[in-house]
Amino acid sequence: MPAIVPDRPVIGPTHIPATNLLAWYERSRRDLPWREPGVSAWQILVSEFMLQQTPVARVLPIWTDWVRRWPTPSATAAATAADVLRAWGKLGYPRRAKRLHECATVIARDHDDVVPADVDVLLTLPGVGSYTARAIACFAYGQRVPVVDTNVRRVVARAVHGCADAGNPSPTRDHADVAALLPDDDRAPRFSVALMELGATVCTARAPRCGLCPLEVCAWRAAGYPPSAGAARRVQTYAGTDRQVRGRLLDVLRDNEFPVTRAQLDAAWLSDTAQRDRALYSLLDDGLVTQTADGRYALAGEEFKKDSTARR
Length: 312
Hints:
- With 312 residues, this protein is an all-alpha fold.
- It is built from 15 helices and 2 strands.
- It has a two-stranded antiparallel sheet with strand order 1-2.
- 33% of the residues are buried.
- It is an enzyme of class 3 (hydrolase).
- InterPro entries: DNA_glycosylase, Endonuclease3_FeS-loop_motif, HhH-GPD_domain, HhH_base_excis_C, HhH_motif, MIG/MutY.
């Protein structure tokens, strides 16, 4: 099989000076609790699950409550799936909560309640993909591994390659790009988080604040900010989607201590009954919702008290 050739040249380590970037990061970084000293690898893993496609502001209160309630994998594994789904709240994409619970169970059972440090082992855990595995190895264990998210890809595309955006992801190319930028010393993990912070707060997708950028050399700026060569990306909508309907149905189940009737669920979305049915069936298929023997609905893994109120 022929070797895969990147569609842009692999870069050298001098394009983004570590000294400038790290000095900026120390002055300008956000105060995020999962970046503080003493935060465990498990708590960092929880933050990475929660931050997928979700703004930091929404994650902060949920993460804080979560790690206080379940500070270890075994504590999370001991919770019911329903407890986990309730604690997840309105973060969205609730399958992440289910996978996090499964991940906690595997770590507690197979890894002595310790999050693995090896990227290849991390990749075997439920819900842990390429980015998350490398983020944990880097941010929790201080390893010199490339950590590439959307923000990092955009910074590299602009500062190094002179492109307005990063184009289609290419793990081989993207990891090679970022690996070439990393300092060859213990600054590498800090550099990785600084690069990510730059993309999240300054080199943003739609309104980059180039006047605040600490990089003295940027290929995109030097080229006169050429526009993207590809089609404009469509903004992902939420209102009226199946995701919104799923969220409404889950809200009903989270807010009730006991199983609910189909009529209670139907009242959560009246505008499109076919869409509502589709959303409910998908929740059942995903294992997030279960149907009781008497035909009512509950969060998966829900435990009910055996008293008279359970039949209301």
